[in-house]
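Bit of a strange request maybe. I'm writing a small parser for structure token strings and I need a real example to test against, not something I typed by hand. Could someone generate the tokens for this chain?
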Amino acid sequence: MDSQGDTQSPSVSRATIVAMVVGLVVLGLAFGTIAVTDVSSAGSLLYWNLLVILVAAASLANSRYHAGLKLTDFRTILPMLLHWLAVLVVIHLLFLLVSTGRMANADVGLTCAFILTLGTVLDGIRGNWRMIVLGLALGLLTIGMAIVEQYVWVLLIVALLAIAMLLIGARLTGHRKGDA
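Reply from user aminoacidic:
Good idea to test on real output. This should exercise your parser:
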């Protein structure tokens, strides 16, 4: 049933591969950032800032591409920027609680990871299902790191699940550029 007019390819699109690679990088960096925060929360705020900025940039680029919007469409960019700014502010407030002794150092890494998870899932609910997948993977990674001492295996399982979900989602949506 292969017609010449069919422009759909059975293989995975380049955009899906890029989304998977970015997702894996984010998961890897989240893993490292949580681990660094567990060792010393004092110097890890910079890492959390950079991780949130990376996830925000990935979300912005992903939503621009899949919705067919220009980077200069400030009507849709402003709510996204405010969303990620709010995530950054909450993470800074957590570190303020640690510095004043109201929160234990050991808890801040996992709490920041859950805030990033929530921010990523909520960003996805606003229209980019790929961010929901990434957010769920971040949440599973965080739970795994809280429960299991051998982090590497949890990271591998979560990464493989995220890749599988992205591939299934790409197949179900048919690689349409205008899908969100």
